[in-house]
Amino acid sequence: MDWGRSATPLSPTVSESKRRTFWCCFCLERLLANGRDRIVTFSPDDITTQFPQSDENFIYGHQVQTCTLNCPDWSTEAHNHVEKETIMGYTIRIVHILSQIISWNGRGGRHVDTSFPWLTGTAFNKLDEDLKRWVSIIPAFLKYSPQNASAMIALGKGKPWSMMWMVYFQARAYLHREYLPFTPQEEYDPFKGPIDGPALSVPAPKDFWHNSAAAMIESANAISNLYQIMKKRGLSASAYPIPGLGLLTAASVHVVYSIFSWDTMCNIISPEESRSYLKQDMDAFNDIGQRWCLAIHWMRQISLFYKLNLLTKQSWANNNDNDISSMNVKEIKDGIMNFVRQISLKDRQTRDVNLKPTFDFDGWMSAMQSSVSQEQGMELGDLEIAETGSLSTVYVDDLQVDLLNNASGMFYLDGLAEMGLSGDVESLVEEWGQSGLE
C-alpha cells in the first residue's frame, strides 16, 4: 500500500511556508490562553519544527538549518551550526515565556505558590530569569531603543520588531504585577511587598520589592509608549488586537498608581505621571476600538477596575470599617487578566454608537469621579453617565451572570459590572462572600 514510502521532498518555499503557518498557530494559541479555561495544547517537548528562516532566505528559496524551541543552547554560542535567529525566532521564544507566566498565574500564582520569589529555582525566579536571559541574547541592533526603532522602521521591519517588544514588556509587567494587590490596603507599601495573600515569613533581600515594582512600572510605561510609536510611525498599531493585550496589563498598573501615592515610589512614578500614561492607554483602546469590538470590553474592565480602586481609597478617607482585604483578590483579578471575551451584539452596537475618533479622557475621569460620589445603594442595572463629546460613558451591562453556577470562574468582573458601580464596598464584599469566592 506504499505506506512506508518516503514523502516527496518539498520545495524550500513550500517547506518554509508550512513552518511559518505552524508557528503562527503556536503563537496565536499561546497569546489567547489564560492558564485556566483556555489552556495550551501544543506541548513544547513534542515540537521539533525548526524556527522560520530569514525573509531573505525565504524569498530566494534557500534552505538553511535554524534552531528549534527546545534547543538546549539557544542563548549561547554553542549552536553556531544553525542560522542566527531572526525577529520571528525571538518573538516565538518570548511568546512562549509569556505563555508560561500566564499559565503560572492562571493556576493561582502567588496565592497558591507560597515560595519566596527571590530564591533561585522558584517559579517566579525562573520566569524572571527566562526574561533576563531572553533580553541578554538579543543582538545590539534589535535592542529596544529610539535609535533601533527608527532603524527597524527604515528597514521595513518596524512592525515585527515592535510586536516582539510589545510581547516582552507585557510578559515582564504581567509577571511582576502578580505581587501588586488588586485593591491595596491602607498599610500597603510597594517598597515593602504585598500584605495580602499568604504571608512570606522571611524578609526579602534589600530593594527586591522596589526593583520588582520598578520593573512592572517601566514595562507598563514602555507598552503605552510603544503603542504611540507604532501609531505615529504608521506601523498599523490597531490593525491587530494583540497590542491590546499588553495595553490591558499596562492600564491596570497605571490605574493603581494614578489613584494611590506612595512616597517610596515617587522616584519611579507619580500619580500625575501615571494618569498621563493611563490617558495614553485609553486613547490606544479607543484607537483599537475603531476596528475591533473587543476594545469595548477592555475599556469597560478598566473603568470597573478604576471605579473599584476609587471606592477603596474613599473607604480609607471615610475611616470606613469595610474590610476590603476580605475580597478574594485572585478571583476578582480574572476579570482583568482573562483578557478575551465573546463579544455580544450590544458591545458592537455600543462601539458603533458611542466610539468617537478621539477619547475624551477628562470626560471619562469626570464620569468615574461622579459615579463614586453617587448615593450608596443605587438601583442596579444599566447605568449610563452622559458623555461629553466622546466615549466617557460607563456601561454596566445587565449580564445576568450567576456567579454561583459559573464553573469556569471567568466572569467575576463582568458580574462586578452588574453590581459594582453602586459604589457600596460593603455590598461588594458581601456579594463575593455569597459567591463562595473567599
Can you give a write-up of this model?
It comes from Clonostachys solani. This is Xylanolytic transcriptional activator regulatory domain-containing protein. With 438 residues, the chain is mostly helical. The chain has a domain of 131 residues. The protein is 52% helix and 0% strand. The chain contains 15 helices and no strands. Helix 5 runs antiparallel to helix 6. It is globular. The C terminus is likely disordered.
Give a quick rundown of the structure.
Its main location: nucleus. By secondary structure, the protein is mostly helical.
Sheet-strand content, in percent, reads under 5%
Overall form: globular
N-to-C SSE series?
HHHHHHHHHHHHHHH
Reported for the largest beta sheet, the result is: none
List segments where confidence is low: pLDDT < 50 over at least 5 consecutive residues.
Answer: 323-329, 375-438
Q: Mean pLDDT, nearest integer?
A: 79
SSE class = mainly alpha
Topology:
Blueprint: H1 12-32, H2 55-60, H3 87-106, H4 123-137, H5 146-154, H6 158-177, H7 208-232, H8 242-259, H9 271-289, H10 294-317, H11 329-337, H12 345-354, H13 361-373, H14 412-419, H15 425-434
Pfam families: Fungal_trans (PF04082)
Protein name: Xylanolytic transcriptional activator regulatory domain-containing protein
GO molecular function, one term: DNA-binding transcription factor activity, RNA polymerase II-specific
Summary tags:
15 helices; Xylanolytic transcriptional activator regulatory domain-containing protein; zinc ion binding; 438 residues; mainly alpha
